[in-house]
Design goal:
131 residues, two-stranded antiparallel ribbon, elongated, membrane
Length: 131
């Protein structure tokens, strides 16, 4: 026996965690707006710069930190956005597996981004030796 759906102001109240994810998505977008402008201005600043200038830019703790935060927040936002797309347009039988794969892909992208940003900030080569 299932309970009757709950309504507030004639609108069905979600029984899951959709509102929390919506708030998290909006907070990530709010953080991405100034970070995106910063990335854009940094890109214009570094356009045409030589390798040494780019490495020096990455060597700055502030730049490397902001870039790592941008990568992580972007991956979080993209993960939440793809989850919504999958839940809205993919048949129920495939949803959970695709959401899991999507989350895993964005987790790997975020981890790889932070790894390579830290390597550049510490003055290491961008790729491991032998690759």
């Amino acid at each position: 026996m299932s309970a009757a759906p709950k309504f507030k102001n004639n609108v069905k109240i979600s029984e899951r965690h959709g509102a929390g994810e919506w708030k998290l998505e909006k907070l990530a977008l709010l953080a991405l707006m100034p970070l995106g402008l910063w990335v854009l201005s940094s890109g214009f600043t570094l356009a045409g710069a030589d390798y040494g200038a780019v490495i020096a830019w990455f060597g700055s703790t502030l730049n490397a930190g902001l870039l790592a935060v941008t990568a992580v927040v972007f991956c979080l936002f993209a993960s939440l956005a793809w989850k919504v797309i999958i839940e809205d347009y993919v048949p129920a039988s495939s949803r959970s597996g695709l959401v899991l794969v999507s989350n895993l892909v964005f987790l790997v992208l975020a981890a790889a981004s932070v790894f390579f940003i830290v390597r550049l900030a510490l003055g290491s080569a961008p790729l491991p030796a032998g690759v």
